[in-house]
Every structure is written in structure tokens, then in C-alpha cells.
Design goal:
There is one protein chain. The chain has 28 helices and twelve strands. With 761 residues, it is an alpha/beta fold. It has three domains: 1-216, Growth Hormone, Chain: A (Up-down Bundle), CATH 1.20.1250; 278-329 and 344-505, Rossmann fold, CATH 3.40.50.150; 550-761, Growth Hormone, Chain: A (Up-down Bundle), CATH 1.20.1250. The strands form two sheets. It has an eight-stranded mixed β-sheet with strand order 7-6-5-8-9-11-10-12, sandwiched between helices. α10 links the parallel β5 (295-299) and β6 (317-322). The longest helix has 49 residues, at 126-174.
Length: 761
């Protein structure tokens, strides 16, 4: 039994670190911009690799034994988790984001030390150890959804601390350290008791001072506005986001705020539409002011305001699609205030991703309406690293396909950047449908979101504009209706058939081609595709944050290489493990992002795909020591060639299988994904433990094992960053194929080909 304790410790450490990573991401998403959160989390995860480097350094001088280091690092791991979260949660927001990096990094460093020390001391069973590590991470990817949805944020921190404490308990039992066993037992009882009791933790969760003081959160910005915040009347953490309802001095609405930035109002409504006629003065109402609106699809229905516009426009059947369950819960929680908007007979609410919903629907609509979906992208670059399938070329084609005769597709967007990209996407789709260049400008209308008085106050710029597309040209009756309502609302028309925007008038007159139009616009206004759906990246260059992470990681690698990888044969070995870290993430990141489209939920795609991939890799790891693999695949390392080929084939077979399973229930789609991911996962799980075992025959120093763990960890962070860069420039498929090519190149170069030497401590 004693020998199994060390495997349990690896499993629990992998489980703890994965859930902690998700919690860290959720915390930073609430207080930092998306791009900055990406930087902080990426650099924090770098700590896992640094943990391996530290293990190599500390145990290399022989003064500290592996046993002592393992006991110490596993002891401090649960402490670091709860302390690091507490510091970032309860202390006021700091503009010194490097403090968040170092604070968030500590558990990863200690976790990396725990696992790399165990690998070093048990090199002969590296395949089984890696299996347990991946199994822990894989189960963590599934468990974290249930844990966060059930317990909220702070209770989830206690749960992950308990897992880490159990890892320390297992290590203490393995080495028979009675006092440490007793101490771990006492703290386990205390933490479990606090979790069961619950009220103290719930009280602490409300003291999110970093959130309240962050300059980027809505509640903080409201303090300088006319609508002062009066307090938070509803708050909910789940695996998707933190959702709050903020009361303000405006008694006619409450604000739903997601992750501190995305806002969606709940309008005061008593069920009588005559009481909300004032909403007809809003630009949002224009798509519902003309034509038929019997059947309406609202994507991103938020607090229900857009549903009210549809009701005012005469809609009899409204499908309201909202991805965040906490948003729907918030609206229903204030049903007396909102007129129970989501439970009206005309309205049916779907807790789903809008793109996934319409892809699986056979219904057609008079009006498909999207109002500022992903509202927290108001800053142009804030969400540039985020994929979004709502606004891609393929999505646009699907929307138009689901319109009835003379139906309308309407977008309300944030600014001129969004407007140009949305409009250019629609034009491209229409051109590809066979609409001639001189006629295509008759198929859309653009209205400025602010009235003329507000436009003057904003310097005459474009702000929150509305764009409406049709499958047919706008009729003169529709054009006159739009002219009348915009004049009544005192708004400027940016583009209308017969009154074209100068840029699109040049397109109409064939003075420029569509390609020239895209090139002449000074920012990135090219349509996004499902293969590279980074809609909010408006820069023609890469976002600064990507360069920053790359430079930091490369700097760390240069320091590590110069200081610890001096011998020539060690460089070949490090090349192997660096390549594995790079290749694995170049496959993992894009495959997860591609699957969002099929599951309709980023959190489900993340969990299901990662669990399937890690479970498969765990099986591959366990099989790596099988006699058949050692006999037929090691010399030369054919397993690397097979891995590359399997990745290339699997990326297409997985998509085919998911397309065939699109109409199935969620559980069956998960089973399909699990089966489809198995070959890729198994193949990708073999190289790392095989490399660790090969060290046994080609090196004299066992202390090189944690060093190679560290190298692999550093290049995993580099790989995740490069995966996004390549995906933004060339698409997800390119990133996947480059990952496969790296595996094949490692087969060709065979950096582990060396003579045998006895291993020493």
C-alpha cells in the first residue's frame, strides 16, 4: 500500500494545480482586462517549470535530500494556494501587475517541485507517474465546473486547498512522518468543517476588495458617473464568470455586470408595454420599427432589454439566447422588477451559445438581433486575444440563411472598429453569394448610436452604431421608414441606399475593389473565420501582450540554458523536452478553441476536450513502458513519427465526427469527443515518460530529471503563447499542423540518440 501513496500524491497535486489555475483565471478575469489576465496567468504557470529548475538546483548540492524537499514543498503547497488567493482577493487592486504574477506563481513553483522531485526519485515508473499527473489534471478539468457552480469562488479555494493538503498527507504517510500526518489531519478537519458550515466563507467572499477598487471594473467607474452605485444586490460565481447585479441611482434599471466589465441592464417593467414606450427613442428599437417582426431571435439577451424592444416591435415569438446561466438567474431573481420578462408567453429562453443555437436550429426569423455581444470589449484591444464565433464569416452566412423572406439581421456594436469589421464581413458574404459589387451597398443600413447632440459632445465620432443587413435590397418603403425614425430620434444615418458612406460609395461605383477596401482601412477590418475567430483584434500587428510574454519566457529560457545546460549532450536532451512542451501546447490550445463552436460553451469545450486529451495522454503514458512499445517503437523513436501523423489525421476526423453528432444530446457528444480524441491523446502521452526513462540509459546524473521537467514546463508556456499567435495569423489548423511537424522533426533529429551510461543519484 505504501508505494501507492506517492502515486496518489502526484494525482492530487496535478488535480490541485489545475483547479487552482482555473480559479486564478476567474479571479483575474474579474479585476484585469482579458489580455492582461492572459499575461499574468501565463507567467504564473511558468512557475511549474521554475519549480523543476529549483528542484534541480536545491538537490544538486546534496545538502538537501529529495525526501526533505518533497515533504517541505508538499507541506507549503496548500498554504501557498490559500494565502496567494487571499492576498489577491482581499487586498486593494494594485497597478503593479507583476505582484499578481509572483503571488499567483508560488503554488505552481511548489507544485512543480513536488512532482519533479517525485519523478526524480522514481524514474523507473515515470510512465505511471505521468499517468497519475495527467489523470489528476484531466479530472480537475471536469470537476472544476461542478465545484465552482456548486460552491462559488471562496469555497472552491477551500476545496482545492483540501486536495493539496491530502497530497501532503499522502507524502507524510509515505515517509511515515507522524507529526506531519497529525498536523495535516487537523487542518483537513478544520477546512472541511468550514466548508460544511459555509457562512463564514460566504461572508468572506463578499470582501472582494481587489474587485471593488480595480479601475477597470464597472462598479468603480460608476462612481464617477451620473448613475452612482448604491450596492450589489445579487452576486454569483460559476465556471464561466462572476455575475453581479448593481443597484444605481437610476431607479428604472439595475445593471447586470459580468466579470466586472460586461453590462446588461434589467429594465423596470410591470408587464404593460405602454409603460416602456420611451424605449422606442433608443437606436436599438430601429430594427423593430419597420417590416415584420413576428418571429425574433435575440442572441445575447442579457438582462432582457432587447426582448422588450422585440415586444415593442410586435414580436409574437421571441427566442432569447443567453450563454451565462447566472445572468438568467439574476433576471429571474428580480422578476417583480423586470415584469418576469423571461417567463412571458411570447418568450422562450435558452441557456446556450448563440452561434451553437442557430447552427442546430431549423427555424427562420423575421429579425435576428445581436446587441453588443461581449460588451466588455469596449476597449479596442482588451479582448483581442479572445476567440469569438458570433461574428465570423461562417456565422454571418448562417444568420442570413435563417432569415425569412425580407428578414433583417441587426447588430448593435461598440465603435467604428467593430462597425467596419462587421460591415465588411457582411459585404464579403453577400459578394460571395453572387451579389454584384455595384448592388451590394443596397443590402445594408448603418445608423450612429448617439443622437446629434450627443455626437457633438463626443467630437462627432461613431459610437454604438447599428447596422442592419438583409438578403434582399432595402425597399424604398423601408428606407423612408428608417429616415423617418432616425429623424425623429435626431440621429445621423452613416449609410443608406441612396445615401452611401463615402468608402462604400467608392465600392459601389467600382472605384475600389473589396480587397483594396480592406487594405485602405488603417486598422484590421478583415472578416474573421471559424479557423481564426479573433474578432476583437483590430491591430494589423500582434497585440503587445504576446510579445511581452514571449520575451519573458525566452529570457527565462536563456538564463536557464546558460546556467544549467552547459554540457553538449544535455543540450540535445533539453531540445527533446523543449520540443515536447512546445508541440503539446500547439495542439492542445487550438483543439480546445476549435471545439467551442461544437459545444456552445467555452467552459464545456475546455473541460470535455481537455479531459479527453489528458485522459488519452495518461493512457499513452501508462502504455509507454509496455514491452511491445519498447521493442518496436523506441529505436528509432517511431512513436514521435506516429504522434505527428495521428495529429494531422485526427484534427479532420474529430471535426467530421462532431459534425455528424451535432444534433445529439450533450452526453452523447461528449462520448463522441472522448472516442475521437483517444488516438491523439494516447499518441501524445507516450513521448514524455519515454524520454524520462531514456535518461536512465544516457545520463549519469538523476538530478537532470527535474531540470528536464522544468525545460518542458517553460516551453509549454511558450507553446501556449505561440499557439495563439499562429492561430491569429494563420488559423487554428496551422498551429495544429506545426505541432504535428515538431513531433515529426523530433523523430528525424532524434535528440536522445546517445550511448548508455549507468545512472547515479
Amino acid at each position: 500500500m505504501n508505494k501507492y501513496l506517492i502515486f496518489i500524491a502526484v494525482f492530487l497535486t496535478g488535480l490541485s494545480l489545475f483547479i487552482y489555475e482555473v480559479l486564478l483565471t476567474r479571479l483575474f478575469s474579474a479585476v484585469l482586462t482579458y489580455n492582461l489576465a492572459f499575461v499574468v496567468v501565463s507567467l504564473a504557470i511558468l512557475g511549474s517549470g521554475l519549480g523543476g529548475i529549483l528542484t534541480h538546483k536545491i538537490t544538486g548540492n546534496k545538502k538537501i535530500t529529495s525526501e526533505k524537499l518533497l515533504l517541505t514543498s508538499s507541506q507549503w503547497l496548500p498554504v501557498s494556494i490559500i494565502v496567494s488567493i487571499a492576498l489577491m482577493y482581499f487586498l486593494p487592486f494594485s497597478l503593479m501587475f507583476i505582484m499578481y504574477v509572483f503571488t499567483g506563481m508560488m503554488p505552481f513553483i511548489l507544485g512543480g517541485m513536488v512532482i519533479s522531485t517525485i519523478f526524480k526519485s522514481n524514474i523507473g515508473v515515470s510512465g505511471k507517474l505521468y499517468f497519475m499527473d495527467l489523470l489528476g489534471s484531466g479530472i480537475g478539468s471536469i470537476a472544476v465546473i461542478g465545484i465552482m457552480n456548486k460552491f462559488g469562488f471562496m469555497s472552491s479555494v477551500i476545496v482545492v486547498t483540501i486536495f493539496a493538503l491530502l497530497a501532503f498527507f499522502s507524502v507524510s504517510c509515505y515517509y511515515r512522518k507522524t507529526l506531519k500526518i497529525a498536523a495535516a489531519g487537523v487542518f483537513l478537519i478544520l477546512l472541511t468543517g468550514s466548508l460544511i458550515q459555509g457562512s463564514v466563507i460566504k461572508s468572506l467572499e463578499k470582501r472582494f476588495y481587489a474587485y471593488y477598487t480595480s479601475p477597470g471594473t464597472v462598479i468603480n467607474m460608476l462612481r464617477d458617473s451620473d448613475e452612482k452605485p448604491l450596492g450589489i444586490s445579487f452576486s454569483k460565481w460559476n465556471a464561466i464568470s462572476r455575475t453581479d447585479v448593481i443597484e444605481t441611482t437610476n431607479k428604472n434599471e439595475k445593471l447586470i455586470v459580468t466579470d466586472g466589465g460586461a453590462t446588461a441592464p434589467i429594465i423596470k417593467f410591470n408587464g404593460n408595454l405602454n409603460e416602456v414606450q420611451y424605449l422606442k427613442e433608443s437606436v436599438n428599437y430601429i430594427p423593430f420599427s419597420f417590416g415584420k417582426n413576428d418571429d425574433t431571435l435575440v442572441i445575447g439577451s442579457g438582462g432582457g432589454k432587447d426582448v422588450l424592444f422585440a415586444l415593442l416591435g410586435g414580436s409574437r415569438k421571441i427566442d432569447a439566447v443567453e450563454i451565462n446561466p447566472s445572468t438568467i438567474e439574476a433576471v429571474n431573481n428580480f422578476k417583480d422588477f423586470s415584469g418576469d420578462i423571461y417567463n412571458r408567453p411570447e418568450v422562450k429562453v435558452y441557456n446556450q451559445d448563440g452561434r451553437n443555437f442557430i447552427e442546430n436550429s431549423s427555424d427562420k426569423y423575421d429579425n435576428i438581433y445581436l446587441s453588443m455581444v461581449m460588451t466588455n470589449a469596449i476597449e479596442n484591444t482588451m479582448y483581442s486575444l479572445s476567440e469569438n464565433y458570433i461574428y465570423t464569416y461562417e456565422a454571418f452566412k448562417t444568420y442570413l440563411k435563417h432569415l425569412k423572406d425580407n428578414g433583417k439581421l441587426s447588430f448593435m456594436v461598440h465603435n467604428a472598429y467593430d462597425l467596419a469589421k462587421i460591415t465588411n464581413t457582411g459585404i464579403k458574404v453577400l459578394l460571395d453569394k453572387g451579389i454584384s459589387q455595384d448592388k451590394v451597398t443596397d443590402y445594408f443600413v448603418i445608423v450612429n448610436g448617439v443622437n446629434r447632440q450627443e455626437s457633438g459632445e463626443h467630437g462627432g465620432g461613431v459610437n454604438m452604431p447599428l447596422v442592419i443587413f438583409k438578403n434582399t435590397p432595402f425597399t424604398w418603403e423601408e428606407i423612408n421608414s428608417i429616415k423617418n425614425i432616425t429623424e425623429m430620434q435626431n440621429r445621423d444615418i452613416i449609410h443608406l441606399p441612396g445615401k452611401e458612406d463615402p468608402v462604400y460609395k467608392a465600392l459601389k461605383n467600382k472605384e475600389i475593389t473589396y480587397t483594396q477596401l480592406i487594405k485602405e482601412i488603417p486598422f484590421n477590418s478583415k472578416p474573421t473565420t471559424d479557423n481564426s475567430p479573433f474578432f476583437f483584434n483590430y491591430s494589423k500587428l500582434l497585440p503587445f501582450e504576446m510579445y511581452f510574454v514571449l520575451l519573458i519566457v525566452l529570457f527565462v529560457w536563456i538564463v536557464v540554458r546558460r546556467k544549467y545546460i552547459e554540457q553538449k549532450e544535455h543540450r540535445g536532451i533539453s531540445f527533446y523536452f523543449a520540443g515536447l512542451g512546445l508541440a503539446y501546447m500547439l495542439v492542445e490550445i487550438p483543439i480546445i478553441q476549435k471545439m467551442v463552436l461544437y459545444f456552445g460553451s467555452p467552459s464545456l469545450a475546455f473541460s470535455f476536450i481537455l479531459f479527453s486529451l489528458l485522459a488519452g495522454s495518461g493512457i499513452g503514458s501508462a502504455l509507454s513502458s509496455h514491452e511491445a512499445i519498447e521493442k518496436h517503437l523506441l529505436k528509432p523513436p517511431k512513436y514521435l513519427l506516429i504522434t505527428g501523423i495521428v495529429i494531422i489525421v485526427s484534427q479532420w476526423s474529430i471535426i467530421w465526427m462532431l459534425n455528424e453528432a451535432r444534433g445529439l444530446q450533450l452526453i452523447y457528444r461528449f462520448i463522441v469527443v472522448f472516442i475521437a480524441m483517444m488516438p491523439m491523446g494516447i499518441a501524445m502521452g507516450i513521448p514524455f515518460p519515454t524520454g524520462i526513462k531514456r535518461l536512465e540509459s544516457i545520463i549519469r546524473d538523476k538530478n537532470l530529471v527535474p531540470l528536464m521537467w522544468g525545460v518542458n514546463g517553460i516551453f509549454s508556456v511558450l507553446g501556449s503563447t505561440l499557439a495563439i499567435i499562429i492561430s491569429m495569423i494563420f488559423g487554428f489548423n496551422a498551429a495544429l499542423n506545426i505541432g504535428a511537424i515538431i513531433y515529426i522533426y523530433l523523430f528525424i533529429s532524434n535528440p536522445l540518440r546517445m550511448g548508455k551510461a549507468p545512472i547515479q543519484e
